[in-house]
Structure formats: C-alpha cells, structure tokens
Amino acid sequence: MGGPRFATVIAALAGGPDCPAGDPAVTLELLAPLTADAQIDPAGYALGADYCRARLLRAGREDWSLRLARVEEGWALRSADDEPQWRFDARLLRPGAYLTLHRPDGAEFTFRVVNVQSPEPA
C-alpha cells in the first residue's frame, strides 16, 4: 500500500493588501499529501509532516521557506516554531481553486492554484 502521496501545488497571487489585482510573479509552492478529492490529507500529513513544505517566491527577493502545520483551526504555514503562523485556508487544491493566507496581523493574501503536480503511480 505505501505511504502518503505528495503533490506539488503551485499558486499565483490573485490579490493582497498591496496588490489588489494580484501579481503572477509572486507564487506559492506547497508540497503536501492530497486526498483523491484534492484536499490536504490529515492522515498523510500525520505520516509525513516533515516533508510538508512551502516556498513563497517573489521576483527580486529571496525565497521564503515555510512548513505546513496542523493547527486547531485547520492548517497554517510558518517559517520556524517560534515564528507566528500564517493561517492557511483552502477547500480544494486543484487548478482554478483559490486559497488564502492570513498574515498574523489579519491581512489576507489570495492565491489561485495554477498547477498541481502529482507523482506518477509506481
């Protein structure tokens, strides 16, 4: 049967406080286990939490490395254990779907999923 199946989700900034029209040069890459219906798989996360990562890529700026964390409200991204978490809302992680990152101060950044890369079956 094997362990969780991870997918790479790529999303582009669709809107945020300083960029209401979005910016395709700002992307979020998330590596996480997904269920067959494109949701983050909590069981897969429990087995492979150390592999659940994200990167925020911004043109002309250093990439920001993050970890996916299970929190009481659902999911969050954080750069280190002692750093504030950014709450992460996403119903489905498939092309065309939207996800929202909530900065600790309450600002929201909306991303549109543009690609999901799943590993080929063994």
What features would you highlight for this structure?
single chain, 122 residues, eight-stranded antiparallel beta barrel, mainly beta, 49% strand
Structure explained in plain terms:
The protein is mainly beta. It has one domain (6-117). It contains one helix and eight strands; from the N terminus they run ββαββββββ. It has an eight-stranded antiparallel barrel. β5 (74-78) and β6 (86-90) form a beta hairpin. The N and C termini lie close together (11 Å).
Topology:
Elements: E1 6-15, E2 23-33, H1 42-48, E3 53-58, E4 64-71, E5 74-78, E6 86-90, E7 98-102, E8 108-117
**Count of domains:** 1
**Average pLDDT across residues?**
90
Distance from first to last alpha carbon: 11 Å
Structural class: mainly beta
Oligomeric form of this entry? single chain
Task: Describe the structure in brief.
With 122 residues, this protein is mainly beta. The protein is 6% helix and 49% strand.
